[in-house]
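Let's study a protein:

===
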Amino acid sequence: MKITIKRLLVFQALGFILFTFKNTYDIIKKRISVNMLGKKPPLYESNYHFFVVGNLKCLFVKNDKITKSYVSMGVDCGSELDKVPGLAHLLEHLVFITPEDKNDRNEFGNFLNTHNGHSNAFTSDHMTVYHYEIDTPGLEKSLQLFSHFFRNPMIEEKTIESEINNVDSEFQMGKGHDDYRIWRLQEILAGKKFSTGNKNTFGTDYKKLQTILRNFHAKYYKKMAFVIQSNLELIEIKRLTEKFFALPLDVLTQPERKCLYCEDKSRQKKLLQVDKFVKMKGTSQKKSIHIIIPLISEYKLPYNIYEPIKYFLDKKDHTSLQAALKRKNLVISMVCNIIKRGDRNILFLEMAVNDTSKYYEILEMARDYIKRF
């Protein structure tokens, strides 16, 4: 029988499709069989246990496949409560200082280093979180040292002065990075106070600042939540938590949020009103244009009212803003996100471009498109 090259290629393609389908079918069948036998996927191999020590709410995640332990303490306060710009951030630095009665001022950090661990902390709008990881054999001693930070924080004039220098260094370093500058711009457009802090915001009256910090700590560092992940047994984790963290705390409750959109109907007319453009010279060679638009709060709403808008801006078909910009060769790609800053949300558009000189044309198209909503 005479078989042409064209027919041979067709038969080969059909054979490949059938072979691929059979392999895929076998894999699916095998997975279904495994699931029917009751084997849980890896995502659910950890066991979660909730318990309370005094008024401290604790979550233990047991994972037999890890050799390290991961610890986190969350405090129910953040930069939105600042009396002085950067106050919560400065207190975060002060809490992570070893108490004065210890011989080794960096005892916690040195202990982590000798047990393959490290620590860090961050302050957001609504919370402050301290966390670390360590090889499990060193967990008990590390918890003892970690608990000292929350019992006797070093809120003294000399430590305040030194940590202000560290906070200011973070601020000065951030000014040289586009990501930090854009983040700060988001804060400004959202009407949020300066949350990082620097030498100018804190001043040099360390005695007065000490009083403010101690009052802030006494008021807000009584609502905390503790999370630990380890391969130890639950009974051992409870013993360690009760031993080191029986702290006098208030009950942690979810604060009530207000919805500006619901309470003030006049604000609805200003939804997605584009009225301010800021040009920022980047510090890197990357060419991009960012559009930042403050939005009304969505707290208490039964759904995210901005998700449909986000979808229509950057979806892949021809009706989106991204497609319209690409048709005119104005952008290479575009990413759209909804970012929360304090009690505000921000619509954030990041566009990779070949020519930043066309930013005005891009902004005009974005303005016209957004006005449709």
